Amino acid sequence: MKSSATQGGFTLIELMVVIVIMGILAAVAVPKLFSLMAKAKTSELYSSAGSYIHLQDTFNTEHQDSIGTWRTIGYYMRSNDNFKYYENNTEGGITTVTAYSVDVGETAGWKANNVIKLNDCDINNVWQLNISKSPTNAYNIVYHVVISDYACEGLTTKFGSLDTYNKITGVP
Predict the structure, then answer these.
(1) Cβ neighbour number for residue 170 with a 10 Å cutoff
(2) Which of 1, 49, 59, 95 is the most exposed place for a label (fewest CB within 10 A)?
(3) What is the pLDDT of residue 166?
(4) Residues 82-117: pLDDT tens digits?
(5) Could you tell me which residues come within 8 angstroms of residue 70 by beta carbon, excluding any fewer than 6 positions away?
(6) Which long-range contacts link 79-83 to residues 24+ away (Cβ below 8 Å)?
């Protein structure tokens, strides 16, 4: 018989060290993963609202400074598992959500609310574009971004860049 002074395998200490390291990595990686998943789900808001703005601006130019409805500008956005989309306060012809914040002369032209919890952003928070005629000649129409909760705003940092109201009025 051969005597084996060294056996192939891991000691209990080595296995425990590996398990501790994997636990630490999991504790750091899992919250980051959920954060990235929530940001990925909210990324559709910026592009959807941007498409609305593009179509509304085109309609406004072609129709002598008019503001069009979703139908007249050719915009359509279907609600999905993450968000419901509204023109004014109407989804599918049924008024279901009130405008979050509309200043004098503004209309809630585009709105989305989340139907699932997104990290710290609870269900039924609102991302909204209010639309109005420009008080100056700098823009024909003005878009005012309203987000109902700071926790939700952090998920969609680019969404605020769609705001032209604050650019021309100087309001932060």
Answers:
(1) 6
(2) 1
(3) 62
(4) 999 988 766 544 445 566 667 767 888 899 999 999
(5) 52, 76, 77, 87
(6) 79/115, 81/115, 81/116, 82/41, 82/42, 82/44, 82/114, 82/115, 82/116, 82/118, 83/44, 83/45, 83/112, 83/113, 83/114, 83/115
Task: State CA 77 to chain mean position distance.
Answer: 14
- The phi and psi torsions of 36 (rounded to 5 degrees) equal -65, -35
The residue among 135, 136, 91 whose CA lies nearest residue 113 is 91
Q: Kindly tell me the burial class for residue 90, based on how many C-beta atoms sit within 10 Å of its own C-beta (0-12, 13-18, 19 or more).
A: middle
Three-state SS at 50: helix
C-alpha–C-alpha distance, residues 104 and 157, integer Å: 26
